[in-house]
Amino acid sequence: MRSVRRTVNRVLIGLSGLVLLALGGSVLAIGLGVKPPSWWIHDGRHDVLLSTAERTKWRDQGWWWPVVIAALAVLVLLALWWLFADLRRRRLAEVLVDTGDGEGALLRGRALESVLAAEADRLGGVDTARVHLTGRRTLPEAHVRLRLEPHVDPGQALHQLTVEALAHARNSAGLAALPAEVRLRGVKHRAERVT
Asked: How many CB atoms lie within 10 A of CB 142?
């Protein structure tokens, strides 16, 4: 589902960008003296996009301004919804833990995140760790950000995270799998002197 949303998002952004680029580029080109085609709405360098007659054609009609305001309001609301849907990463509120008796227990997602982050913090060479759970409550996904201390082997830190912290979280929650996306970043430090 997330890949479909990502694809739709990219296609819509690409189409919006192409339309805006084509319109802006055509107005710029006509302003610089390029002769427009006969069907184009902008005729020349000193022409306006909407003439006074076109702008005032429907002004006296009682339905015109409510329709314009409603259409613009709908466009603004759709743009805001798209922005918030794109920015918001759905944080997992709870994880379903199989208790073995046919029932299940609910584990708060923030609790699992904080335990996983605390265990990752204790790994050798990790300065700070942040964990964010997404996905479904039966199949959570972990997004981990590690800030590594200088001179730490990133491969070793990733291996320790996988076999220790992620494995403990997966086993304690009774999950079949706990896919994880890990982003590693080094802590900024001063250059060392070589003697």
From this structure: 25
- Return d(Cα 27, Cα 36) in angstroms, integer: 9
What is the token pair recorded at 131? 């964990």
Tokens of 161: 């995270």
Tokens of 68: 């314009």
3 state DSSP class of 155: helix
For 72-92, what is each residue's pLDDT tens digit? Answer: 999 999 888 888 877 766 778
State phi, psi for 58 to the nearest 5 degrees: -105, 5
**Quick one: 157 exposed, middle or buried, by C-beta within 10 A (0-12, 13-18, 19+)?**
buried
CA distances from 8 to 2, 82, 186 (A): 10, 11, 34
Count of C-beta atoms within a 10 Å radius of residue 144? 22
**What is the model's pTM?**
0.54
Q: What is the CA radius of gyration of the chain?
A: 28
Q: Helix (H, G, I), strand (E, B), or coil: what is residue 78? A: helix
Give the Cα separation of 22 and 37 in Å (integer): 14
